[in-house]
Amino acid sequence: MLQFPFQRFSANSNHGNQSLGKLPEWNLDDLYTGEDAHELKQDLNWLETSCLNFANDFENKLATLSAIELLLCVQQQERINQVAGRIMSFAGLRYYQMTTDAGRTKFMSDMQELITNYTTPLVFFTLELNRLEDKHLSSLMRQNQDLARYKPVFDKIRSMKPHQLSDEIEKLLHDLGVVGDAWERLFDETIAGLTFHIDGEPMGIEATLNFLTDPERAKRESAARELAKVFSDNIKTFARVHNTQAKEKEILDRWRNMPSAQSGRHLSNQVEPEVVDALRNAVVNSYPKLSHRYYELKRKWLGLDRMQIWDRNAPLPMEDPRIVNWDEAENTVMDAYNAFDPLLGDLAKPFFKNGWIDAGVKPGKAPGAFAHPTVTNVHPYVMLNYLGKPRDVMTLAHELGHGVHQVLAAEQGEMLSSTPLTLAETASVFGEMLTFRKMLDGAKSPTQRKVMLANKVEDMINTVVRQIAFYDFECKLHEARRSGELRPEDINALWMSVQAESLGPAFDFMEGYETFWAYIPHFVHSPFYVYAYAFGDGLVNALYSVYADGKEGFEKKYINMLQAGGSKHHKELLAPFGLDASDPKFWDKGLSMISGFIDELEAMEN
To answer: Domains in the chain and their CATH numbers?
Structure first.
């Protein structure tokens, strides 16, 4: 099944603030002009016919194809993926603009079912490809360089060879994909439909999460308790979704003989389990010198004896609460991108000018932020919920980095453009770092610099420490589900088992916080995705240290890395920078940047 991107949840929303300026909205006409567009009907008809023709032309014949014939086969599948991806991108983006609209929900569901039905005859391709002898496939690639370009695609497909089931079962699982999608939609629609009451005012989850960053502690506490109440009221639904999704995954993993619940994610990420283990262990071992140390500093800044969970994202007392309007945000990010390399600025400009960003918070709109690549013959779209906070500027820089990466990687074509999740966060986090450094250099006082550093450290802790804690929670959840149904209180206990360890001794945890796992979309949409954030942050910190050292030709090497998309392994992509993610010391290098920022903050106290 085609997958739509998950959201990067923020703690932001819009209370109707008019000082933000005119916020951009998507223009989806580059995909299709509407549900009834003639081009959409044409593409659906073409897709149905092409899938049947593809099966008629190539099923049970892959072993007999010449090099040029196999190339034509791959290119035809690539074209099918492109058309199907265009249709689902249009349906998905319209849905995320207004998840509570029944018509849009039905349209996306109908498109998913149609495309699943149309593409079922294609399931044979990967099954037959995995039955080819290694020597035979290698011989064909030696005969044709255009075919050899697809070796990374073949390698990724063939990595699943030991876990492949019979043709009939694989087709059945393909058809059943729409059932799993339905559980994801239940989660999305439940989240979007939740109503919270703050000071008697009803609001959605984004607006309520936003209060967790309010300067007034009473409002933060009120929001945290209201979140806990509403999550608790709906906890049976969330537990049912997680139980069902985890059980479905356990069944698939068992049938495919996967060694662990995480194995499928590692394979799709093209990353070795020991690399992820090295990352996880390095971060967990660094909790005391990162999150524990920082939150103790923050506790003192806030003048508290104990930190409560609603203080975690509180603004600092010396922080300027000013609103950053959209034009200023655009100029800040564009200046940072242009200063690094004008090419990045040129690639970023159309996002602002051509309706490729949907920034405002609107009723029914999905919370959070994402960049969706759509297909390689159109362009990406960025979704934000922009509020005018400095962290929103960072989110813009982050998602724009994804967008620029996706534009550059599109040159690889549909099958080779998709970057493994471990490297998918590289350009986004690097874009954030460029913007942060630009803003830090412009700090007008030691206090402003201190606030900027503290906010960056918090963002890095949220990206690295919090996401690895999420990963540990998921590992525990899926392991526990293998032994039977999990009650809500069982999942609550697993959540709390990682919270104190990761956040540190400065915190107390209110009653009800144990339910806060319920709203995290990654657990439902992309199990075990979360370590990609920590991977990306650690990788970018190491990369940025190379850049800061003035390594000659860095900019060109960096752009070449983004252009490679999914055509190269992380070892090959990082080699030009003298970096190797399989070296445990690599992660210490990245974590030391965060620790260094905390050192500077501690020095300011003396």
So the answer is: 15-194 (1.20.140.70), 278-321+423-604 (1.10.1370.20)
